[in-house]
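Could you help me review a protein record that somebody else here produced? My question to you is simply how this chain folds and whether the C-alpha cells agree. Thanks in advance; the entry in question is below:
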Amino acid sequence: MLAFSSQYSAVDTNPLSVYIMQPIWNKIIKIVPLWIAPNLLTFSGFVMILFNYFLISFYDWDYTASGTSPGLVPTWVWLFSAFTTFCAYALGNTQSSTPLGELFDHGLDSWATSIFVLSFFSVCSRDNGKTGVSVYTMYIYLSIVLFNFMCSHWEKYNTGVLFLPWGYDISQVLIAAYLLTGTVGVEVWQKPLLFGYYITDVLVILLIGKCPHMSHLKKTLKNDSLYEGLLPLVSPLLLFILLTVWVVLSPSNILAKQPRLFLWMVGVAFSNVICKVIVCQMSSTRPELFHWFLFPLALVVYAAISGLLGCMEEAVLGVFTALLTAAHVHYGVCVVSRGQLSEHLNIYIFSLKKRIQE
C-alpha cells in the first residue's frame, strides 16, 4: 500500500511571484466561498487555459497567423487569452492541504506548462524568412521548459523539497505578452527591440527560466544510491532522444508539416512521465526504469524513419497522439481523481467531504 507524505514543502524565490502575485492570491482566496474545494478551482483554471489553447488553434493551426501584418488572429482573442491565463494562474494557486490535492495540482501543472508554451508560440509566429521562430526552435524551447519542470520534481524526489525555478511561473509573463499583442498588435514582435534582438528573444530567456537549485542536492539527499537518485531521469531522457530522432530523421519532415500536433504530443508524453515521478516522490516509491509508452513510441519512430509508414506518417502521428492523450486522461481520471489514489486517501477530488468507509 502506498504511503503518501502529508507535508508539502516548496520554495519559490521568483520576485514577480513573491512581491506581486502572492498578495493578489491572498486577496482572491479571501473572497472565494469556503465550501468550494480547492481542487475544483484548480481544475477550472486548467479548463480555461485548455479552452484558450483550442481557441487559438482554431485561428492559427500552423503557427503562421501572426507572421503577417496585421495578424490574422482577432484582437479579442489575445485579450481573452490574457484574461484566461490570469484566471488560471490565480485559481491554480489556491492551496490544498491534502496529498491528493498536491498531486492533482502538480499533475495538471505538468500538462498546463506545455499548453502555455504552445499558446505562446502563436504570438511569436512561425519563421517566414523575416521574423518568427522555426518549428525546430519551438521544439527545443518546449523541451527545455518541460525538462526544467521535470528537474524540479526530480530534485524533490531526492531532497523532499520542491525548489521552483523562475520559469515555473511562466504564465505571469504570458499575461503581459497577450495584453501587449492585443493592444499594440502582432507588429510589436516583428520589429527589433535593441541591437537587432527582438522582444521574442527576451521572452524566450524568461520562458526557459532559472535552472533548478542543484546546490540543494549536496546536503539534503534522501537517496544515498546514485542509481536510485538518477532513476527518475531515465525515461524523460529516452523520451527526448526518441522524439528528437523522429524530428531529425523524419522522411516527410513531420514537425514542419504538423507542428501543432507533434508539439501537443510532446507535451502530453512529458506530462505523463512527470506525473509518474510526482506519484513516486510523494509516496516514497521507486519509479519504473522504462515508461510503458516508450515501447510503442519506439516502434512508431522506427517505422517512420525507416520509411515503412510512407505517406501515412501524418495519419499515424494523429492516431498515436489521440491514443496517448486518451491514455493520459484515463490515468488522471480513473487512477488519480476517481480511482485508486482517491480511494486510498479516502478523499473526494472535487469535494471537501471524505469518502464514506464501506
Residues 159 and 219 are 9 Å apart (CA to CA). The longest strand covers residues 10-12. Confidence is low (pLDDT under 50) at residues 210-217. DSSP finds 14 helices and two strands in the chain.
